[in-house]
Amino acid sequence: MNLQKYKKGEFRYPPYERKRVIIRTAVYFLISIAVFLLGYFSTGKKENLLTIVAVLGLLPSSKSLVSVVMYFKIPKFSETIYQEISGQESNVPVIYSMYLTSYRSNFPVNCFAVRGNNLIGYTEFSGCDASACAEHIQGILKQNSIKNMTIKIFHEKSRFVERFAQLQELDPGKKDLEVLTLLCDISL
Predict the structure, then answer these.
(1) Please, what sign has the CA dihedral across residues 135, 137, 142, 143?
(2) Any idea where the domains of the chain sit in the sequence?
(3) Which of 31, 77, 144, 152 would you call most buried, defined as having the most Cβ atoms within 10 angstroms of its Cβ?
């Protein structure tokens, strides 16, 4: 197993985090089971204080299990697309493999790039509603006092690459990294 840690926004983060969350959840459940069994074998009955501790230990275990379910909903991002886009990187801040969640739907986005007041994204998934994703991001940016951002999510890789090349010609904005950090904060 690869023990290298990946950060949110890196291409290999979702599969790494999925494994980490599964292991964490298994450990949480095993601890609760061990505490219950310890109480049962030491007293000979289920009605003891350690049973209560074991049941309370199921709360964080269950919460962690919800994270496991969410990480299994993240689709597999294409490594070929990542290689193509990352090969063109230069001075534009970029993040990869983002799975944005909202109340109505979820948005898998392969790549986001930001420069000045322009945020662009590319998704290979036809089921991702690009306009709803852009609207969701716009709302989150406004809540965080970031205004006047032009957001465009592309389904066509060629159009994304073309716009990405145009962004490299623009001057950097003061909030480029803040925008990408915010996108990381609202994604799995």
Answers:
(1) positive
(2) 13-73, 79-185
(3) 77
CA distances from 127 to 20, 155, 184 (A): 27, 10, 21
Global confidence as pTM:
0.81
* 13-43 and 49-73 helices, crossing angle to 10°: 160
| Pairing assessment for the beta strands 150-154 and 118-122 based on DSSP bridges | parallel
- What pLDDT, in 10s, does the model give residues 139-163? 888 988 888 888 899 998 889 888 8
The Cβ of residue 6 has, within 10 Å, a number of other Cβ atoms equal to 16
Joined tokens for residue 26: 């298994």
Neighbouring C-beta atoms of residue 31, cutoff 10 Å = 16
